[in-house]
Every structure is written in structure tokens, then in C-alpha cells.
Amino acid sequence: MVFFSYMVLEQGALTDKYSTQHPFPSGTRRGEAFNSEVLVKLESLIQVMREIGNRYNASTAQIAIAWSIAKGTVPIIGVTRLGHIEDAIKATEITLTAEEFQHTSKEMAGFMLDLMTATRL
Questions:
Q1: pLDDT for 42-84, tens place per residue?
Q2: CA–CA dist 96, 67 (Å, integer)
Q3: By C-alpha distance, which of 111, 102, 105, 16 is closest to 54?
Q4: CA–CA gap between residue 83 and residue 94 (Å, rounded)
Q5: For residue 13, what is the DSSP state?
Q6: Using CA atoms, how far apart are residues 22 and 88, in angstroms rounded to an integer?
Q7: Coil, strand, or helix at residue 106?
Q8: What secondary structure does DSSP assign to 39-94, as a single string?
Q9: How many other C-beta atoms are found inside a 10 Å radius of the C-beta of residue 66?
Q10: What confidence score (pLDDT) does residue 78 get?
Q11: Neighbour-count burial of 119, counting CB atoms closer than 10 A to its CB (0-12 exposed, 13-18 middle, 19+ buried)
């Protein structure tokens, strides 16, 4: 059975292009979903993916895709530019170590828990 991962890049939030200093455009769905409070919660996950990416000369987007593949899923990614396709190809060439996979998984779980807790309050 094949499982697909949806929103692997969290609508661009895991690309390291957005932060509290560079937020999503206000008044947009992504701006509302990934507001400054959520972007703060993403910082530790982005940092882990950045550190792992440095080892592979890869972007955080490529590490997020590689992590999804390492989970045994087929990532669904939106591509609107040639660079997005090139990123996806590069991600397929990255094999995360067990430690890198676990570290990313732990940070991802922490982010998801923080996000669920914040949206329930």
C-alpha cells in the first residue's frame, strides 16, 4: 500500500522563506494560518532542517521532502516553478541518517503538538 504525504512543505512555511521577520502576506489564507505565533513555533523545526541541510548542501524544503520520503510516503508538492522540480529531484538523492530522521520527527511532533494546543485554546 502506498501512502501519500499532503502539504509536505506546509504551504511554503517549511521552505525557510518565511519567518516572524518575513511573514506571509497579511490578509491571505496562508498569512492567517501561519501567523507570527505559528511562525515562532516553527523556528526550532526550521533550525533543525537548516542544520541537516547544511550537511547535504540542501535547502530546508529539500530536507522536508527527504524526510517525507524517509517515512515511506510519496510527498505531494505543489510546483509552480522549475526550481521546485529541481528541489524535489535533489530531495530524492538525500538519504537521512536514522539520527537525522529521528531529530526531524521529534521537532515535527513538537511543532504539531504546539500548533494543536494553540488552536484549541
A1: 999 999 999 999 999 999 999 999 999 999 999 998 888 999 9
A2: 7
A3: 16
A4: 17
A5: G
A6: 24
A7: helix
A8: HHHHHHHHHHHHHHHHHHT--HHHHHHHHHHHTTEEE-----SHHHHHHHHHHHT-
A9: 28
A10: 85
A11: exposed
Which residues make Cβ contacts (< 8 Å) with residue 97, sequence separation at least 6?
A: none
Cα(24)–Cα(14) distance, integer angstroms: 12
Report the residue count for the chain.
121
Put residue 100 in one of left, alpha, beta given phi > 0 → left and psi -120 to 50 → alpha. Answer: alpha
H-helix or E-strand containing 4? strand 3-5
pLDDT per residue over 86-121, tens digit each?
999 999 999 999 999 999 999 988 888 776 665 544
Longest dimension (CA), the chain: 42
Q: Which residues of 78-107 are buried (b: 16+ CB within 10 A; e: fewer)?
A: eeeeeeeeebbebbeebebeeebbebbeeb
User: Higher-confidence residue: 115 or 12?
Assistant: 12
Whole-number pLDDT of residue 51:
97
